[in-house]
Amino acid sequence: MIPHSWQRTKIVCTLGPATDSPGVIEQLIEYGMDVARVNASHGDHADHARRIERVRNAAHALGQPVAILIDLPGPKFRIGDLPDDFRKLTEGAIVRLTAEGGIAEEGGGAEEYNTLLPVRDPELLQALRAGESVFLADGSIELRVRTTTAACVQCEVIIGGTVRSGSGINVPESILSELVPTDDDRRHLAFAVAQEIEWVGVSFVQSAGDLARVRACLPSGPGPGAQPLLMAKIEKRQALADLDAIVEASDGVMVARGDLGVETDLAEIPVVQKRIIAAANAHGRPVVTATQMLESMVEREHPTRAEATDVANAVLDGTDAVMLSAETAIGQFPIAAVRFLARVLTATEKGYSLRMAHDRMRATDMPSSPDQPGNALSFAACQLAARLSARAIIVPAHTMAAALAIARFRPQAPLIVVASSMRLYRSLALVRGVSPLLSAAVFGTGTRTGTGPQACLVQAGEWLVSQGLAELGDQVVLVSASSSACERADTLRTIRLSLDGSTG
């Protein structure tokens, strides 16, 4: 049996002040972090570059593939910088929203000063109307607009809480909107390209056209996979109306439950989550479930039972990865949060992975069109692995498509992808059930030592044995290509091999 320490579902951790202490990033990787997330809405490029370098160095030292995901801010309104970086708002209190920089001009005593909340986008002040609800910090705080002027909006606190610098502002009734990408997004995109980031999260996507405009901002690369992959963050009600087109136009999807829970009815979020994950699974796109997975661990060392259940349900829904936000970025217990998350994932997969794999193989519709034989062959490879109780499926790959063609069927056996580039090696760290290995020459013809499918088999076999996932003589399934054009699914062939090198 495959040891339960091998984890199929991936873990995304947000970087921040809490991960800056010496040794924290190394421990995050050791305990299960597969993707390090950088939220471009907070901090500056110097901070981000420093953290990215630390992740790269730690991952290299530990021999682990870790992808970097940068979230673009998108057209979102935010609170400006606050004294002490936070402010507590009490139910029934009156606060005033004003343009950032206007606090100093207001003057007044300390009590009056503490009623002011700076807003980074002055145009929001012009758009708000009396009676509208304003939500802060992923909807945890609610304000009601009482009066408005050109320079200030007076609000009553309906639901109190702590608001932090850079917290998001949602006004579901407002029609004020801006196209994706914003000018700020373009600046962060240039930084992401310069840093050779694997994934870029596109915030507030409302249509497939938003993703097309973001792609148009990326420079042409020298070859496949040179550009960062785009992850569509589903957090607007309008996106649900165009969900299939958005998923198809993306490289990956995020269920961004924070803003989604404000922009839509909170009671609908569980069903909406299942719908988004199902759409991503159907299109063969990796999907991340995010926001408040272990929210209580921002301040407490132990999570709630409801949070543990929430994480498990995301796995059962079919998510590729689960994400920690404030828990690791600013929380008091980032290492404990990752360790507990890994425990829940392992326990859930141990109890249900066999059933899930069987149900997926039985329920997935087989593509019948002749231009999609690769999906049919990938399905057959998963079936063969299941019938043989193979220890692994091994795939030499040049592109994400070659790996995702098999990963979409959620095989029970580990999917070992021998990647032909460092970018692909890291990018695959996000995909459920995939263990990436790096190879300098994946699709050699055998004329050079150490190339070709047989070399990939040997490399993957050594890794499986070293991880305790297989023994010499165990059977595996090798999916190889007859040419370097791995995206040509009609050239794929599935053969059965054993780790001692014999064929069957």
Which sheet architecture does the biggest sheet show?
A: 8 strands, parallel, barrel
Poorly predicted ranges: 104-111, 365-371, 442-449, 482-497
CATH topology of the largest domain: TIM Barrel
Instruction: Provide the helix percentage.
Output: 25-40%
Tell me the count of domains: 3
Taking all residues together, what is the mean pLDDT?
A: 85
Query: What's the CATH class of the largest domain, please?
Result: Alpha Beta
- The name of the CATH superfamily of the largest domain reads Phosphoenolpyruvate-binding domains
Q: Could you explain how this protein is built, in words?
A:
This protein is 37% helix and 22% strand. By secondary structure, the chain is α/β, with parallel strands linked by helices. It folds into three domains: 10-74 and 181-351, Alpha-Beta Barrel (TIM Barrel), CATH 3.20.20; 77-170, PK beta-barrel domain-like (M1 Pyruvate Kinase, Domain 3); 373-498, 3-Layer(aba) Sandwich (Pyruvate Kinase, Chain: A, domain 1), CATH 3.40.1380.20. It has an eight-stranded parallel beta barrel, surrounded by eight helices.
TL;DR?
It holds the Pfam family PK_C. Belongs to the pyruvate kinase family. By secondary structure, this protein is of the alpha/beta class.
